[in-house]
Amino acid sequence: MFAAEKGVALDVVPLDVVGGENRREPHLTRNPLGTTPVLELPSGRCFSEAVAICEYLEELCPQPALIGTTPEERAETRMWTRRIDLGIAEPMVNGYRAADRREMFETRMKLVSPAAAAELKALARDRVIWLDGRMSELTYVCGERFSMADIMLFAFLRFGEDFGQPIPTEAATLRRWYERVKERPSSAA
């Protein structure tokens, strides 16, 4: 979605994550951790981690600025991206892995106890509700500018919608925000 917002066309190589293709060669040569996404440059050098890839693309194509044009904007975007990652994405995904898809993930990584899944999902839900209250007078996470923080939030709320952790009904502001962002052409990327 970040690349699409920038108008950068990337060759996408699908991986069968459910089948563990990301945990075998040749993917492990690109990223020894076996995670996705990975950006492979024409030189063969590879970068993993979504935020690092986005920052790389922002450096190459500064417009439209999705991280920011000033030190203050960049700091604000990075702060909100980190808050969304740690407060919403991590507990949401770890709750999903620990319970809903435990059989798939338990041979691939260390997981928290299945009993912790409900608490992790509740932590993510509470943070979504908190963010909903904060955004009641904002257009986007960073005020009036669409940013990497919005992209990350959208991706994980979409994950939640798809995998049993929908936007809470009491988070009406975020529901409206989500529907607006879903209308962006980049949301189909």
Specify the CATH class of the largest domain.
Answer: Mainly Alpha
CATH topology of the largest domain: Glutathione S-transferase Yfyf (Class Pi), Chain A, domain 2
CATH architect. name of the largest domain: Up-down Bundle
**Coarse shape:** globular
How confident overall, as mean pLDDT?
A: 94
Structural class: mainly alpha
**How many strands in all?**
2
Question: What is the count of structural domains?
Answer: 2
Beginning-to-end CA distance, first to last residue: 5 Å
Segments where pLDDT lies below 50 for 5+ residues?
A: none
Give an overview of the whole structure:
The chain contains eight helices and two strands. It has 189 residues and is mainly alpha-helical. The chain has two domains: 2-60, 3-Layer(aba) Sandwich (Glutaredoxin), CATH 3.40.30; 71-184, Glutathione S-transferase Yfyf (Class Pi), Chain A, domain 2. Strands 1-2 form a two-stranded antiparallel sheet. Helix 4 (71-100) packs antiparallel against helix 6 and helix 4 (71-100) runs parallel beside helix 7 (148-162). The termini are close together.
Primary descriptors:
Glutathione S-transferase Yfyf (Class Pi), Chain A, domain 2, two-stranded antiparallel sheet, Glutaredoxin, mainly alpha, 189 residues, 2 domains, single chain, globular, 8 helices
